[in-house]
Amino acid sequence: MKRCDLYCAWIEFCEIIAENELGVTNPNFLHYMEYKKKCLEFPVNVKVSPEVYKRKEYITVIKNIESSLKRGKGISMYLSKRAKKLKKDGMFNDFGIIHLHLNKKIGNKVVDIAKDSGTTLQVYYSQGTVYIFNFGRHGKGAYTNPKDLQKLYDRFPDALRNRLLESSKIDDVQNMSSGDIFHIRKLNGLEMTYLRGKDGSTLTIRPYLITSFTNDNGPLDLRLNTFFNNLKQDWAMKGYKSVDVEIDIEKKEFRIIDKKSNKLIFKLHNDVFINYMIY
Fold it and tell me: Where are the domains positioned within the chain?
């Protein structure tokens, strides 16, 4: 697919914002889209597994995360350093699980109160709801364990409804080993996950990345290109033959100016637009 010039200009704008916002050199545009999808910067419903509340030492942070999600402030404060460096996240791409650090503001610093234990919090977003369902950990095998997705299903089965490919009566649920999953991810591969259903059936769950960046109108890259192409055609029909792009990094605004009249004919706020396109 050849990207239209207006779409290319917007991609450059996003890369400038990513560099400015995250301090990343030469950021990858699609990796930035993946990062923004984890931020969840719009109001959502929140459901918390009772098991999570049993860890009393983390209750304050969990309540803060709940509040931030409900108010539309998102969870960027709790994302890992790797996420903010736009590194590939196999756990997110395959399972859809976002692992959060149990960060707390103490004075002018943000402190991970679970750093010594390596404990993390696992959350999952689907169709307007964030499910806070499990504690994870750092270390070998921490991000390649299908049992984490099984825990999500056991506690909130509806969360995975839109990723269910098929249900069968096969008795033996067999996922690849953690090590094999790790090696497949190294090769940029994605794999199905098999879960035990409530009725004992085997459920086949598609990789999250396929579901999350593709909808009825096609993959994200195609949808964005179509959006900007349609804008160009609409302006041409209205008599705007030649336009300039104007950007405001501080306000995160992307503006289109008619060259002839110097009139503003379109603008978008980047965070709002990205959320509209990726959710």
Answer: 40-162
